[in-house]
Specification:
By secondary structure, this protein is mostly helical. Helices cover 71% and strands 2% of the residues. It folds into two domains: 154 residues, no CATH class; 95 residues. Strands 1-2 form a two-stranded antiparallel sheet. The structure holds zinc ion (ZN). The site of zinc ion has 8 residues, from loops.
Length: 266
């Protein structure tokens, strides 16, 4: 993450911030805010993109979607309705939000590799060991009461196991809607001692392919689009939208960095 984005995110998270944590207070909060204001004035769309992506600002997201709709004015597309839907998908991809067709894969990885899942799996394993031990003891029971006591302890453990499975399933489902960061390597792309993360191929993120995007249209109920329409119209439009968003956001980041450097040099 660039320094400009880091400052940007921190300024929106806490009320007062000093730019330098090592005590060399070269940029104060109000100087940083002034720089943000100046850049906001020059590149409103770019700043909104940062607001939406890094601080999850909903009004900024709405403004971006409105702006993207105006991009269609100069286009002679047959299916502008699908194009608008696709521009929203492009925006989600820009914000690193997973598309519907990726969710199952992300949830499966989360169920296996997330810290929560590892903790749950340890708990479950412990309960399973205890259950087995109790089951072995049943044969040695001499009275029915003793046997019943063991059985009820086993049922309690089994209920705990079922509950824990359900809990981790729910967690994995909700995580898979939020972020396309790889749950196995936590977005770093590598795993300690073994090198490149085999789940995401070292990328740290699950970037949807163009095919994922096409499937996504079906997931959100827009139905199948013909190959011709997809290749001629929708795919190029999607790529154009996503390209515009990346270009705009990287220019705003470099403008922010330049302005902050200038202030620091003063
Ligand atoms: Zn990974």
């Amino acid at each position: 993450m660039s320094r400009a984005i880091e400052l940007f995110a921190r300024m929106h998270e806490v009320r007062s911030v000093t730019a330098d944590e090592r005590g060399r207070q070269t940029l104060t909060g109000d100087v940083i805010l002034a720089v943000f204001g100046k850049v906001q004035h020059k590149m409103p769309l770019g700043m909104d993109l940062l607001m939406a992506k890094y601080v999850h600002d909903a009004p900024a997201a709405n403004r971006i979607i409105d702006v993207m709709a105006t991009w269609l004015n100069d286009e002679s597309l047959k299916r502008k309705d699908l194009a608008i839907a696709l521009s929203c998908v492009a925006f989600d991809v820009f914000c690193d939000k997973p598309v519907a067709s990726q969710k199952r894969q992300l949830a499966a990885l989360c169920r296996k590799y997330s810290d929560q899942a590892k903790r749950s799996n340890r708990l479950i394993k412990g309960w399973q060991v205890k259950t087995k031990r109790l089951q072995r003891n049943i044969d040695g029971c001499e009275t029915q009461t003793a046997e019943e006591r063991l059985l009820s302890a086993i049922y309690e453990l089994e209920a705990l196991i079922i509950k824990e499975h359900r809990r981790i399933d729910e967690y994995a489902q909700s995580q898979s809607l939020k972020s396309s960061t790889c749950p196995r390597c936590n977005g770093t792309g590598s795993i300690l001692n073994t090198g490149e993360c085999p789940s995401c191929g070292g990328r740290g993120l699950f970037v949807p392919s163009v095919d994922n995007i096409r499937q996504h249209l079906r997931h959100i109920g827009l139905g199948r689009v013909s190959d011709k329409l997809w290749e001629r119209e929708l795919k190029p439009w999607f790529e154009k939208c996503l390209g515009n968003l990346y270009v705009e956001s990287s220019s705003v980041v470099s403008l922010l960095s330049d302005e902050l450097h200038k202030e620091q040099a003063n």
